[in-house]
Amino acid sequence: MKHIAYIFGILIVISSCGNKNSSVTESNSKWLSDSLSMANAYKPMLNSNLFLDSLMPFIAKRHDSMPFERRFDLVFKPHFDLQKTEKDYRILYSGYGKDGFNYIMLRRLEPSIKNDKYAVLCARFKRIASGLMDTSSFEELYWTWKMPLNELHPKAAKLFKMTMEQKDLKPYMPGKENDLYIMFPDGNATYDQKNKMWKSADPSHQ
Fold first, then answer.
1. CB atoms within 10 A of CB 192
2. pLDDT average, residue stretch 92-99
3. pLDDT value of residue 20
4. Which has the higher per-residue pLDDT, 51 or 4?
5. Greater confidence, 204 or 194?
6. Residue 122 above 90 pLDDT?
7. Which of 41-45, 64-68, 127-131, 147-151 ranks highest by mean pLDDT?
């Protein structure tokens, strides 16, 4: 009920905001009608906050003194706990796909003048027999551009629903008509699933 109330609050905020772009307004209104059903169909797992703890070493910024290969050491947990709070990480949706993967979408506060812009990550993973995440299967699929929540939430709902329905996301990739959705992967940044990190094709950005 709390999650539904939260989504309902978002709907009120979004519906009260004007939008200069009529096509965006039309798109948002279409997906606003799906927000409550999305909240029920793909609501976060019951232990979503604890699950975030297991994700933080994968997705959070490491301290400069933290060796990449040691990021899962318990000694670094306070750093990731602080990141989780300061960046307001929150799982928005989760679901089990037809391909045997578990899918999640989470949001993260990004730097901005008003400190009010977020980006979302969509990722997938498999579980082992005990129910825990198989860390070797974890994969970041895409990150969106940062934007205010009233713009982000309907776009996040749209992308996650399309992902779960295995629909083509190419029209929402960078450089396409709807390029204010997904920021990367793009022609330069790709996800290295083996090493669990984004890599740039430009050697100077490695």
1. 11
2. 93
3. 40
4. 51
5. 194
6. yes
7. 147-151
Q: Residues with Cβ < 8 Å from 157, sequence gap 6 or more? A: 31, 34, 35, 38, 93
Q: Compute the distance between CA of residue 25 and CA of residue 158 in angstroms, rounded to an integer.
A: 14
CA 74 to CA 101: how far, in whole Å? 27
What residues pair up with 94 in beta bridges, in sequence order? 104
Environment class of 95 (CB within 10 Å of its CB; exposed 0-12, middle 13-18, buried 19+): buried
Indicate the domain borders of the chain.
2-205
